[in-house]
Design brief:
This protein starts with a helix and ends in a 7-residue tail after the last helix. It folds into two domains: 38-94, no CATH class; 106-325, MetI-like fold (Orthogonal Bundle), CATH 1.10.3720.10. The protein is built from 13 helices and four strands. The chain is mainly alpha-helical. Helices cover 73% and strands 3% of the residues. It has helices spanning 2-31, 37-42, 48-57, 64-77, 105-140, 145-159, 162-176, 192-225, 229-236, 241-269, 273-278, 284-293, 297-325; strands at residues 79-81, 88-90, 97-98, 103-104. It is globular, with a radius of gyration of 24 Å. It comes from Kribbella koreensis. InterPro entries: BPD_transp_1_N, MetI-like, MetI-like_sf. Keywords: Cell membrane, Membrane, Transmembrane, Transmembrane helix, Transport.
Length: 332
């Protein structure tokens, strides 16, 4: 128990350190761009006096280090922009305030997260089940038709651009066959059926492309695992082939699969940019793109940090699962 607590504390410290370094890097990169967000918010006509007042209100008249310090303070204790009756307060955890959208970045992220999470989690479950099943089946039928079929599907999936597959799916199943909606998102609380029906196409597109790498990885790992000594020993003791495959073989294969799956899911939760654009869904990916286009530094920093946090969190969960899936794996 003490080892687990110490491990969690070390990972928490490394998580905070990575987020601090990443946030500082994003700040420096965007302040190196020869553009002025205050001028975009100033309006027309933008006199020098109005521009200076906009910079002061947005706290852009401070140095980069001062602004970064104010950002970190806002995450912990909240932040106030301006003063008097026109002041704008952002409650903690405050990842900044989007002046073009006139809303706190934290609120924008929480509003868009259900869309991205719906896409990512649904597609991830499909590609995990399909990819692992086909990979195991291909390994157990090496050299046969099923093996060649699964490997062929994997090669097609790896070589296919996601945006092209998405557009073709919309064209064929949305317009020609008129089977599924072509865009939009319906919240789960409004109608679970419509929610799933609007997501079935992006789920299938993402799952088809991502499952390709899981087929190849599972097949190669399963072939290697089935030739190890503990598999031979289990068979010699009279264990059935089904038990050998599921209990002994698949358990060892799941260690690298879970590692890749956790990172893929964490990255996708941070914003399925191409999928959201192709299917016109307002998720975190679309929020990030609009933030870059409007030079909305608060949105870019907030979404970037949130995405990084999800990836790091997924990596932490994967490390904890390793010891459960395979006692041979130890944490360093």
């Amino acid at each position: 128990m003490a080892d687990l607590v110490w491990f969690l504390l070390r990972r928490l410290f490394s998580t905070i350190l990575v987020l601090l370094v990443l946030s500082l890097a994003v700040f420096l990169i965007f302040y190196a761009i020869p553009a002025d967000p205050a001028r975009l918010a100033c309006g027309k006509p933008c006199t020098p006096d109005l521009l200076e007042r906009a910079r002061h209100f947005m706290q852009l008249d401070q140095s980069v280090i001062q602004q970064y310090g104010a950002f970190l303070k806002g995450v912990v204790a909240g932040r106030t922009f301006g003063d008097g009756a026109a002041a704008v307060h952002c409650n903690a955890p405050c990842f900044g305030y989007s002046f073009p959208l006139a809303r706190p970045v934290t609120t924008l992220i929480l509003d868009r997260l259900p869309v991205t999470a719906s896409i990512a989690i649904g597609a991830a479950l499909i590609w995990l089940v399909v990819g692992v099943s086909l990979g195991v089946g291909a390994a157990l039928r090496r050299g046969r038709f099923f093996d060649r079929f699964a490997v062929g599907l994997a090669l097609i999936g790896v070589a296919s651009p996601s945006f092209l597959v998405g557009l073709l799916a919309i064209l064929v199943f949305g317009f020609w066959l008129d089977m599924v909606p072509v865009n939009g998102y319906v919240p789960f609380t409004e109608s679970p059926v419509d929610w799933a029906w609007h997501l079935v196409t992006p789920w299938c597109v993402l799952a088809a492309l991502s499952a390709a790498s899981y087929i190849r990885l599972t097949r190669s790992q399963m072939l290697e695992e089935m030739n190890l000594d503990h598999i031979t020993t289990a068979r010699a003791k009279g264990a059935g082939e089904r038990r050998v495959v599921v209990v002994h073989g698949l358990r060892g294969v799941l260690v690298p699969i879970v590692t890749i799956f956790g990172l893929d899911l964490g990255g996708l939760l941070g914003g399925a940019i191409l999928t959201e654009k192709v299917f016109s869904m307002q998720g975190l990916g679309e929020l990030l793109i609009s933030g870059v286009g409007q030079l909305d530094i608060a949105v870019v920093v907030g979404v970037t940090l949130f995405s990084a946090f999800l990836v790091i969190l997924a990596n932490l969960v994967v490390d904890l699962l390793h010891g459960v899936l395979d006692p041979r794996v130890t944490r360093g």
